[in-house]
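W.,

You were right to be curious about this one. When I first looked at the sequence I had no strong expectations either way, so I just let the prediction run and decided to look at it fresh. Below is the sequence, 568 residues in total, followed by the output.
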Amino acid sequence: MNPEASQDTVEESPVPAVAGAAAAPRVAQSNGFGPLKIPLFRDRWIASTVSNVGTWMQDTAATWLMTALTGSPLLIASMQTAASLPVLMLGLFAGATADIFERRRLLIFWQAWQMVAVFLMAVLALLGVIGPMALLSLTFLMNVGSAMNSPAWQAIVPELVPREELPNAVSLASASNNLARAVGPAMGGLMVALFVKASTGAGWVFALNAGSFAAVIWVLYKWKRKPLFKSALPAERIFGSVGTGLRYLRYAPVLQAIFLRAFLFTFSAAAVWSLLSLIARREFTHSHYISGATGYGVLNGSMGLGAVLAAVALPRIRAKFTADRVLAVASVQFLATLLVLAFIHSVTLDILFLIGGGFAWTCTMATLNTGVQLSSPGWVQARALGMYQMIFQGGLALGSFVWGYVAEHSSVTASMTSAAVLIAIAMPVTLRLHVLRGSLPDLTPYQFKRPVPHLELEPAPEDGPVRILVDYIVDVENYNEFVGRIHKLREVRLRTGAIRWAVFRDGNDAERLEESFVMESWLDYLRSRERMTTEDFAVLQCVRDLHKGEELPRVTHQVYAKEMTHHS
């Protein structure tokens, strides 16, 4: 087959339109609780809160059960690793599935998966036959479901609320989790303490958590979903979708900054989550009023209380301070919490600083999560959230193992101090990584008003590679400005699917420049057209503005030449 080429007068100009989108309901007044006025978001929030209470009861009961089953700090800290490792392994894969498959059905499946895993854990615990490895294994399996569920669960939020309410919706989602964290750990610890055997109390907590998933499944079952972005093209394959997500991240410096900040913070903060049960045992061992299990619930609940206070205060905080300032102050607060837990043996001070630590945790996580959602377009949003969750939980998993190892071979004090020192060392780096700085990009998807380019030799969807050539005529005095602008377009092309990009100047004509980019297939090229956002088009338009003449740049499409097979 000879190279297939067509010469068009213009690379199709898009008009802003959301394919397959339903207009999100508007909220009359923007405030921290505005999204709760939207019935669908409110139902989801209530169901999620019920499930989160059960999950935090489970987390406390399971960690304390492990403390009763073994005295090894490494095994105890490994409970956090078992909770975080699935996201580290599956985060990007989970995001890819959420961007490909119908999210409502996907969510129902993974909620049911978690319910079954927790039910099995409850049965083994109530029968008194659960051991450390079985507890770790089932915790891991439950969190496989959580890892696969999370990107889709977060990615549906923009479908439920208008864009201006998205930061408040993210804060309310964080408040849901942290309200549960304030109540769930204390309830879980109390239930374990009510029974003579820790396995019996933990078993009943596991059984309640298994039932809590039913509320979420019911809300999802009733939901009549209307996606914001729906491609008219065939769905990507899983591994191709993963590759596309990684390519997008490679050329998205804003997301890279968010991910690095998330890793550095969660790696250090993991010292608190993984070793708090040992702090509780240290502080409450000789108490005549509060058992170790209940004390652990109280300390964990203190973090949750601080987190709830932060979720309520965040709308006002965001109105007065930049995201960078919020993140910097939160890091200092968490550093102080680590040092107090390390050196000061006072339950009162522990509780006060854990409230501050929970406040700092939610300020950091809600700000970074909002940054991901507002910095990634709909077509790749679940993959971006999956990568964020992977980095986030990867920091927790690795940090839990490291700080548990340090505690086992040295002391809890040494472990907490090391984590605090790491936050201090990392601050000069994180201050240079800006989040939500300046005006937010308009990531509204565009829909081309012109039909798909017609080629005389029409390629099949999988034919490729495909090379696209765009000819520009530019005044010599505008050459440097044009080159600067078109190199900004390079990131747009590569983010949306191009595997190579270049721009060349004609050796015989100083005014003629040619942009060249390559797609893996004709179908990938069609997908790249769908992926263009308002922000991307503004970059393209800046380049076109320096093109001479009334006609727009000429575009040529070329398909890789393969030998033709002749049939008699």
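Here's what jumped out at me. Residues 504 and 514 are 5 Å apart (CA to CA). And, maybe more interesting for your project: Residues 1-29 have pLDDT under 50 and may be disordered.

Coffee later to discuss?

I.
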